[in-house]
Amino acid sequence: MAELTTTIGGFHFNNTIMNGAGVWCYDRKELSAVDTSAAATFVTKTATLAPRAGNPKPRMAATDLGSINSMGLPNKGLDYYLQVVEEFHQANPEKPYFLSTTGTSPDDFGKIFTKIAASNFSGLVELNLSCPNVVGKPQIAYDFAAVERILTQVTGIYHGPLGVKLPPYFDLVHFQQIADVLNQFPLTFVNTINSVGNGLVIQDETAAIAPKGGLGGIGGGYIKPMALANVRVLRQLLKPEINIIGTGGVEIGRDVFELILCGADMVGVATQLGKEGPKVFARLTEELTAIMDAKGYKRLSDFRGKLQVPEAREVAVH
Ligand code: SIN
Asked: Taking the CB of residue 33, how many other CB atoms lie within 10 A of it?
C-alpha cells in the first residue's frame, strides 16, 4: 500500500494532510480532535498578541460549492496557543506542530517573534500575511515592500523554522515579485492559498454574512483552480529548499492528489473540514491512497511536481 509520509524543513510527518489555519483549531478541544484524527498534524488558529473576538456574526456560511467567511481573526491570543502547543508537544514529542500568527499593526511583529523566540516552542511558525477580513487592514502579502520589511524584521529576531501563508496571486508578474521577495529569506515553507478575498455570496436577496457589507474570503471547491495554479507557479519560482503546503478547494482525495502533482509537500483542508469535521482526514487519506495504489505510486515523490502539460501545436490562420 502507498505511504503518505512527507517532510517540511526536515520535520517528518506520517501523513501529508492537515487542517488549514482557521478551521477546527480555536482551542484545546478542537486541536485535540484534529490531533487524534488521521491528520498529519495541526496548525493553530492565527494567534494575535492579544485575544480577539473577531468580526460580528453571521460571519461564516457554507454553500454547496464552498464557503464564505469574514471571521476577522477571532483567537485566544498568542500566550494561549504557545501554552497549548507546548502541552501537545510534551504529550507527543515526535510530532511537529504548526503555530499560526500575525500582527494587526506594524509594531506587533517584533513583539510576537520576540515572545516566540523566548518560549519553549519547537515546532514550525506559519506567519499569516493574507487574512482578507480584518476591517481597515489590507492583505499584507499584496504589498511586496511590506512583506520584505516584515520578514527582514522577523528573521532578525526568530531563527526557528518559519513559513508564510499567502493569498492567491492572479498575475504572473505578481508571482515573480512575491517569489523574488520570499527567496531572499531563510524560509522553511510557504502555505498557498488563503481564501480568495472579498467575494460575495447571496442567499435569496441577502448577503450570506454581515461584516464588510457581506464581503468575505471564498473557500472550498470554488477556489481549487487558483490553489493549483499558485502551488504550481510558486513551486517553479521558489528556491527548492522552501517547501510548499497547498491549501484550497480540497473536497476529495483527487484534490489532494492534484495539489501534490503541482508540487505541494503537504496539503491543508479548511472548508471541507468545517463541513465534515476531523473524520474528513481518514476519508481523504483513504481516497488518496486508493488513487496512488491504482496508479502504482508507492510514495508521494513518485508524482510530486510531475504535472504534465499537453504539447502546444501551432494553429494556422484560416
Ligand atoms: C479570519 O479569521 O478572518 C480567517 C483567517 C484568514 O483568512 O487568515
From this structure: 17
pLDDT of residue 28: 98
Which residues carry out catalysis? 131
Name every protein residue with a CB atom under 6 angstroms from any ligand 1 atom: 22, 46, 69, 71-73, 128, 130-133, 194-195, 217
User: How much is the pLDDT for 59?
Assistant: 98
Mutation probe of ligand 1 site: the residue of 19, 99, 100, 133 with most atoms within 8 A of C-beta:
133
* End-to-end Cα distance, the chain: 52
Question: How high is the pLDDT of residue 207?
Answer: 98
**Which three three-digit cell numbers place residue 291?**
488513487
CA-atom Rg of the chain in angstroms: 19
136 — alpha (psi -120 to 50), left (phi > 0) or beta? left
- Residue 289: phi, psi to the nearest 5? -60, -40
Q: Across the strands, what pairs with 296?
A: none
222: left (phi over 0), alpha (psi -120 to 50) or beta: alpha
pTM: 0.98
Task: Please choose from 44, 55, 73 the residue to mutate so as to test ligand 1's pocket, defined by most ligand atoms within 8 A of CB.
Answer: 73
Cell, residue 13: 510527518
318 three-class SS: coil
